[in-house]
Amino acid sequence: MRDEWGSMSRVINDRMVELGMSQHDLVVRSGLSRGTVHELRNGGSRGRTVQVVRAMSDALGLSEDDLKGVRPQVASAEGIRDQIAHVLSILCDIEIRLVALERGIALESCDSMRLGPVQALGDGSAQIG
């Protein structure tokens, strides 16, 4: 747990340097007490509530996750391909519905007009069938 607090204190101190901000400036901008700001800057756990983290992140112009040092998870290539194929499938359904509307064809479901499975190709295009 101490490592997590140390991570936050590093983010706070690095951001203060980036902004040329003193501890007094941070106290004024955050509305937090000098003791709480000092504690957070030095990796302490006292006063780490949701409200304190929010006030500190707002004062530093960071998201709460950035302040906590949370790193976004990177999706795998396979996961991204699956997502692209899903989006392309939805777009295909929309296109089928649009064509049906333009031609005045009543659709009970897109499955009845589906041309085949949509497969994402490596160049960003899609192949149907």
From TrEMBL:
Residue span(s) of domain HTH cro/C1-type: 12-67
GO molecular function, one term: DNA binding
Pfam families, sorted: HTH_26
Signal sequence, start to end: none
Protein's recorded name: HTH cro/C1-type domain-containing protein
Species name: Actinokineospora globicatena
Source organism phylogeny: Bacteria, Bacillati, Actinomycetota, Actinomycetes, Pseudonocardiales
